[in-house]
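Quick one, tokens below:
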């Protein structure tokens, strides 16, 4: 269900997306309001599920996670128990940054962050030992051109 947002809500969300560590006073000043109305709007947006969580974005390369692989998974298994086991396996693997079920020839795409190709191979070996997969194709990202968590408002 889509939540109705006015211009002030959108401005508050834009400020939070840019830097959630800003004080209420800073956000209020930037959106042309005062602290209490901004706080009430933020509470409303949290309650409506628009704001899911506050977090910190880390630099993967600064932490030694220099390899980013996009993993294309094709399966011949589509039973509920296989799918549950596969999803549980993905959720348990910290290397998996994102996982999407797709329409088309590829069933799933994973974004996997690891230190290097050897670490990817360890991930791959663990994955196929836990769940039967028909075909896996790994694509190494040579350069990250754009990455953002900011949604267009």
């Amino acid at each position: 269900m889509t939540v109705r947002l006015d211009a002030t809500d959108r401005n508050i969300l834009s400020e939070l997306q840019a830097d959630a560590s800003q004080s209420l006073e800073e956000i209020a000043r930037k959106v042309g309001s005062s602290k209490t109305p901004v706080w009430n709007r933020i509470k409303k947006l949290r309650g409506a599920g628009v704001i899911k969580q506050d977090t910190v974005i880390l630099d993967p390369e600064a932490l030694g996670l220099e390899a980013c692989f996009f993993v294309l998974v094709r399966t011949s298994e589509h039973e509920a128990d296989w799918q549950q086991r596969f999803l549980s396996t993905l959720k348990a693997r910290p290397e998996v940054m994102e996982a999407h079920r797709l329409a088309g020839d590829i069933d799933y795409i994973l974004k996997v962050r690891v230190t290097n190709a050897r670490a990817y191979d360890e991930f791959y070996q663990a994955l196929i030992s836990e769940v039967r997969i028909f075909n896996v194709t790994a694509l190494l990202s040579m350069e990250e051109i754009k990455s953002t968590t900011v949604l267009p408002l």
